[in-house]
Amino acid sequence: MKLLLILTLLINYLTAFDYELEPKKISATTHCFFGYSEVMDEHNNGNMSNSCFVNMGTNYIVIDSGPTYSYAFQAYEKMKMIKNLPISYVINTHVHDDHWLGNSYYSELGVQIVGSNGFSSETRVAITRMQQRISPEAFLKTTQVIPLILVENEKLLDVNGTTIHLINVNKKAHTSADLLVYIPKDKTIFVGDLVFNDRLPSIRDGDLKGWTDTLEVIKSMDVTFIIGGHGKIVDRTSVDMTYNYIKTLQEEVSTLLEDGEDISDVVNTVVMEKYKDTNFYDSMHRQNVEIAYRMLEWGNE
Ligand SMILES: [Zn+2]
Fold it and tell me: What single-letter DSSP state applies at residue 5?
């Protein structure tokens, strides 16, 4: 029996996917694992979004838990090699599955999981996009554990005497419920997918004006680090690409819409040359123009 158990563990260990995660030091307190600028597939196994750890003195907090149980397990193992601290909270910035399926690992450790009020029992689906696209080995043990503590407006967490502000954006921006994690002491704000800086953002679930208005508020804050859900830029310029792209998209599409152009012409006209070499341009830009047109057309009626 014991031998069987050892064999099972050994097989599990040998077949598990190694994400080869490397924590990058951002500041005295913060490390992030940066995902690849790719779509989720059976090669990256969902490692295409960011997950960050903040050392609060005697504990860590984790912002976004990554795409799978095994990713979360491996990330925490790497962090324990830097400093072996327990985790007091995992915070999920929004409902897209590359940012929270790692909750399944942290919940086993008994960590409290906090999220935007965009989460509900309806967030759970029969089969997630992640499970459909990555390898079964990498997805092993991953279940859909949604946060138990949901933030309606603003919630303050006190960890070891440091105040963490959890701020619900309360308007549609990247999604209809995006959560900001602001740590004044560290002059750091985690903004989830309001910021992409290595690829074009998908605007599918968002709102152009809500998104740029929120980024303007974030840019006006007294922070040194603005850490997004995708991309490795973490200083104040991290916001620029997403902000400029969405602002230009909104302006160009609005102008043509007011001129009475129809959607097919607008999709062909709003090329936004400047972004041609940005990752995901080919797969996403035309679709974004189309979505922007429908969004703005609706808003004008
Ligand atoms: Zn997202």
Answer: H
Report the separation in Å between the CA atom of 4 and the middle of ligand 1, taken as the mean of its atom positions.
Answer: 42
Identity of residue 66 = G
CA of 176 to the centre of ligand 1 (A): 11
> Residue 120: which H helix or E strand, with range?
none
CA of 174 to the centre of ligand 1 (A): 7
Task: From residue 67, give the alpha-carbon distance in Å to each of 80, 92, 165, 204.
Answer: 20, 12, 24, 20
Nearest partner of 21 among 72, 89, 55, 93, judged by Cα = 72
Sign, CA dihedral 6-7-13-16, equals negative
Considering only the top CATH level, what class is 2-168? alpha beta
C-alpha torsion sign, points 37, 40, 42, 44: positive
In this predicted model, what pLDDT tens digit does every residue of 60-117 receive, in sequence order?
Answer: 999 999 999 999 999 999 999 999 999 999 999 999 999 999 999 999 999 999 999 9
Please tell me the predicted confidence (pLDDT) of residue 16: 82
